[in-house]
Amino acid sequence: MTDQPNRPRKPRADAIRNRERVLEAAKAVFSRGGTEAGLEGVARQAGVGIGTLYRHFPTREALYEALYRREVEQLAELARQLSAELPPLAGLRRWIEALVEFVGTKKGMAAALALAAHKPPELMAYTSARLYEAIGTLLRPAAEAGEIRRDIGAEDLLRTVIGLCYLHEGPGWQAQVMRLVDVFLDGMRVQPGHPPAPPRG
Is 67 exposed, middle or buried (0-12, 13-18, 19+ CB in 10 A)? Predict the structure, then answer.
């Protein structure tokens, strides 16, 4: 018989399901923060043993990075969906709501896992590129339709929203952030009788 080359085996369906359950549980647990924001709490929420969690994510940082990447990819996909389903400004606001939720998860992870302040450079570069691309998917149609200023870019918007998120703490902080986001979005609108500003060079 001819020897077959060794090929990496595909993960079993139950292993894939367990991994997704762990990531969903991690998002919920880290978003709540507090004393439950640990790996044991994640395993309980997912309904798996701690050994199963460690088989998929051998370190806290591995779980954090996997969830971080997953959330960013979901935000990128959401931007594509919203650009096709909603008017530009409505889609942009809905996407920002999802971004604020993502930051809530991220804040919980930072507190729960006591991670270093500086993330791996490649992870941060990947995150920034994907988020800028997602925001651009929603900003460009609104600007081209003459609904918002053309001199506001993806980086401006991302920095503003992230900054607002980290300035607010305590119960109800997400609602406070969205109230200020609405003020910011109103300021981006092109007012009747005023031509839109030219795009930045």
Answer: buried
Q: Which long-range contacts (CB under 8 A, 24 or more apart) does 17-25 make?
A: 18/46, 18/48, 18/52, 18/56, 19/56, 21/46, 21/47, 21/48, 22/46, 22/48, 22/52, 22/53, 22/56, 22/57, 22/63, 23/66, 23/67, 23/70
Among the listed residues 44, 48, 59, the one whose alpha carbon sits nearest the alpha carbon of residue 19: 48
**pLDDT (tens digit per residue) in 61-106:** 888 888 888 989 999 999 999 999 999 889 999 999 999 988 887 7
Taking the C-alpha atoms of residue 60 and residue 28, their distance in angstroms, rounded to an integer, is: 16
Report the predicted TM-score, pTM, of the whole model to 2 decimal places.
0.74
The encoded tokens of residue 50 equal 């701690």
